[in-house]
Write a structure and sequence with these properties.
Structural class: mainly beta
Number of strands: 12
Helix content: under 10%
Strand content: 35-45%
Distance between the termini: 7 Å
Strand order of the largest sheet: 1-9-6-11-4
Largest sheet: 5 strands, antiparallel
Radius of gyration: 15 Å
Order of helices and strands: EEEEEEEEEEEEH
Bound molecules: dTDP-4-keto-6-deoxyglucose
Length: 143
């Protein structure tokens, strides 16, 4: 998995009556959770994201259906399919993300390390490449 990203496996407590998964800050996710939000009702041909964050840490969990995430850095690109509520995709700072192929009824839950701040977003891809190139090119990150 690429730099600043990881797939996290949460404990899935299964009984005859269904599944239960709990997520505890600093235990199951590597940060203190200050915000959660969820994305629902996305049309199948819609694409979201198209930005990076300067400092925010997040974990994305697909609670229902499936969603694909394209992750990009100036040196690498990777695609992840989320379709298991007991799996979270951790995305750290300076990773460009694009979400697409939302299936009908899919639900994306996100736990974030900070409150919402538009100042933390880099929404222009060329600006992103410019801001991230020092981190990825001069520090010999090859992942
Ligand atoms: C991310 C991906 C995975 C708020 O007012 N509060 C919030 O907490 C959030 C997340 C968004 N907003 C506003 C900002 C925009 O006016 O809601 C609108 C839609 O946000 P955005 O276009 O950034 O949504 P996505 O789906 O492209 O990205 C979201 C998160 O914003 C982002 O941090 O990493 O999900």
């Amino acid at each position: 998995m690429m730099y600043n990203c990881a797939l996290l496996k949460f404990k899935d407590i299964v009984s005859n009556d269904g599944h239960l998964t709990s997520i505890e800050e600093r235990i199951d996710v590597p940060f203190i959770i200050k915000r959660i939000y969820y994305i629902t009702g996305v049309a199948q041909d819609a694409e979201r994201g198209f930005h990076a964050h300067k400092t925010l840490h997040q974990v994305l969990i697909c609670l229902n259906g499936s969603i694909k995430i394209r992750l990009k850095t100036p040196i690498k690109e990777e695609q992840i399919k989320l379709n298991d509520p007991s799996v979270g995709l951790y995305i750290g700072p300076l990773i460009w993300r694009e979400m697409f192929d939302f299936t009908k009824g899919s639900v994306l839950l996100v736990a974030a390390s900070d409150h919402y701040s538009e100042d933390d977003y880099i929404r222009d891809y060329n600006l992103y490449l410019d801001e991230a190139k020092d981190t990825f090119l001069s520090h010999s990150i090859h992942e």
